[in-house]
């Protein structure tokens, strides 16, 4: 049975993942309005991934007999000066999420909850990828600067991203 502290931490993380989805939707809309349809696509796919992360956490709580807590999802920032600012904020957000996930792993250790520790390790590994991909895109944006032909190529590259359910083959 899950301890209350763990239920609270996992429920908070459900909220954070849905907030992440909301944030990336707001960024996607902003990129779309700037004319960067490919960037908007990448962020939209990212929003779908975050929804999947939150839903997976929620299902895990139910699967372990817990009652999740529900709280308000805060409104995301909607005004961005350009795609560089967007990805600076994506990276900052992912670093913040990494701290939260690490906090859950540490809590699981303190509570001697091996199942939660094992479960949250997927998210620990995922955050390594999340930070790496945000960093990679931000580096490209910095290299490209104002060169329109290269911005066009980067936008096209990000437009090719396709959503795949990260938990498609997972039962719980
Ligand atoms: Fe849920 O991975 Fe980003 O935040």
Structure description:
With 172 residues, this protein is an all-alpha fold. The chain has one domain: Up-down Bundle (Ferritin), CATH 1.20.1260. Helix content is 75%, strand content 0%. The protein has helices at residues 4-34, 37-63, 83-110, 114-144, 148-159. It is elongated and about 55 Å long. The two termini are 16 Å apart. The relative contact order is 0.17. Bound molecules: hydroxy diiron-OXO moiety. Residues 17, 20, 50, 53, 94, 97, 126, 130 line the site of hydroxy diiron-OXO moiety (OFO).
What is the CATH first-level class name? Mainly Alpha
The largest sheet, given as strand count, sense and whether it forms a barrel, is: none
Compressed to H and E, one letter per element, the order equals HHHHH
Q: How far apart are the first and last residues' alpha carbons, in Å?
A: 16 Å
Portion of residues in beta strands equals: under 5%
Give a list of the ligands.
hydroxy diiron-OXO moiety
| Poorly predicted tracts of residues | none
Total helical segments: 5
Domain module count = 1
The number of E-state strands comes to 0
**Which radius of gyration do the C-alpha atoms yield?**
17 Å
Name of the CATH homologous superfamily: Ferritin, core subunit, four-helix bundle
Architecture (CATH level 2) name: Up-down Bundle
Shape: elongated
* Structural classification: mainly alpha
Mean pLDDT: 96
Looking at the structure, the CATH topology is Ferritin
């Amino acid at each position: 049975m899950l301890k209350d502290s763990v239920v609270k931490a996992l429920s908070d993380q459900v909220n954070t993942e849905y907030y992440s989805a909301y944030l990336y939707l707001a960024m996607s809309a902003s990129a779309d309005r700037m004319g960067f349809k490919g960037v908007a696509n990448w962020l939209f796919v990212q929003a779908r991934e975050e929804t999947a992360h939150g839903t997976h956490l929620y299902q895990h709580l139910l699967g372990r007999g817990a009652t999740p807590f529900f709280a308000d999802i805060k409104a995301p920032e909607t005004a961005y000066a350009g795609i560089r600012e967007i990805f600076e904020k994506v990276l900052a957000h992912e670093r913040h999420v990494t701290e939260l996930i690490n906090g859950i792993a540490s809590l699981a250790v303190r509570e001697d909850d091996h199942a939660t520790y094992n479960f949250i390790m997927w998210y620990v590994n995922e955050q390594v990828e999340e930070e790496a991909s945000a960093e990679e895109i931000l580096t490209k944006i910095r290299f490209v600067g104002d060169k329109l032909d290269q911005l066009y190529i980067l936008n096209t590259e990000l437009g090719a991203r396709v959503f795949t359910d990260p938990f498609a083959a997972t039962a719980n």
